Amino acid sequence: MNNISIASALQRKIVTARLAGFGFFGLFVAGLFLPKGGMTPLMTWIPFLGVAGSHLYIAKRAVCPKCKAKLGQARYGLGLLPAHMERCPACGLDFSAEAFGADAP
Fold this sequence. Notes:
Elements: H1 6-32, H2 41-61, H3 72-75
């Protein structure tokens, strides 16, 4: 069985969503350099929806697996920095504990 902590499991999902958001933002920036008329409304909305979707995904997934308290920016920030919080502020769950099962965060 994988010995992965709850914090690592959550962090992996958050970082993946952040990188997807950055990728969509990069698509928008690349669209700015298209020839005149190349930046269609579709090239504006797809990246916007991708970035917004990554933020919404993080808002839904950055929760305590035990009590479902939202951890949000307090825990993850960009998702690329080390975690600041070691326990859930609501229920006290230790995030360094091992995550079990297929339904682990």
